[in-house]
Amino acid sequence: MMRVCFAIIFYIGVFSATFGYASPLSDKVENFVPKNVYQKNANFIKKIFSNEKKFYKGNNLNIQAILSALKSNGLLTLKLKEPANVSATFRINAYSKTDDNPSFFFLNYTINAMLGNMGYSYFYITEVKSDKEKILITYTLNSESNIDPSVLVSGLMARGYNIVDVNRFSQTHWIYDISLKNGIIPNANDINSNSTISNISGKYWLSFSMAGSVSIKTSNMESFYPKVLVFDNNMNIIDSIMETNSTKNYNFNVDSNVRYIFFTDNYNPTNLRSGLDIVFKPSKSK
Asked: How confident is the model over 80-106, as pLDDT tens digits?
């Protein structure tokens, strides 16, 4: 018992000596860096974080800057001794309400896209909690290392999320508390005039900043079965259309509360891989 207490006191003493005093920044670095790595690099860590202002945004910790500093200096130890199930949990409104009517669809879409871009092909959801107030999703995969939190944080921010907090919950589990400021689809096509676009997948994200009427046909003039998902500024689905009759030209109106539209073929997206010719007419302002 005395040996355990001494170890705890020693670690706290080393950490306090490194930063000179306990602070939100010192607590966060302690959470991110494994104890053995920290103890071996205490003086180096003190030097990295000597200018504490660099690691704050206003009164809040700049999680991205902290992770980046640790990673660039080889202190963000993610590799495991052997392959294991590693998890990443993403939460919205876990402790305080930051988002009204948060979008489960957009969060799930975002994380799936990011994990795919990072080269992960096999992952699965091990926990889900979702209602109109809160969202929690945990993704798990088998790997020799944890999912890089610096890459996840950068990807989330690029898609419009604010990073409220990040914590290493265990050796193989990280938790991300986030809020959606302004949902962004990185590969979306801005539609504010007539456009011709193509995507080999046959799946298209269209971005709108104004109301108007839209007419869509395929570049090869073939028939297709329109599938349309309409999203508002909070990235919640406000309308969905899945046609069972084919057409060569599809027309619909975009209201002022529409932010994005996902457009594809209801049965076979490759029917639209040749491209889309889009005619957009803005609504006349009153």
From this structure: 999 999 999 999 999 889 999 899 999
pLDDT digits (tens, 9 = 90+) for 194-219: 999 999 999 999 999 999 999 999 99
Round to whole Å and give the CA distance between 277 and 194.
8
Cα distance between residue 130 and residue 149, in whole Å: 23
Strand partners for 142: 85
Give the span between the Cα atoms of 112 and 104, in whole angstroms: 12
Q: At what angle do helices 24-32 and 2-19 cross, to 10 degrees?
A: 120
pTM of the shown model: 0.88
Positive or negative CA dihedral for 15, 19, 24, 28? negative
Task: Find where tokens 């989330």 sit.
Answer: 156
Angstrom distance (rounded) from CA 3 to CA 43: 25
Q: What sign results for the dihedral spanned by CA atoms 254, 257, 261, 266? A: negative
Q: 178: how many CB neighbours lie within 10 A of its CB?
A: 28
For residues 212 and 282, what is the distance between their CA atoms, to the nearest angstrom? Answer: 4
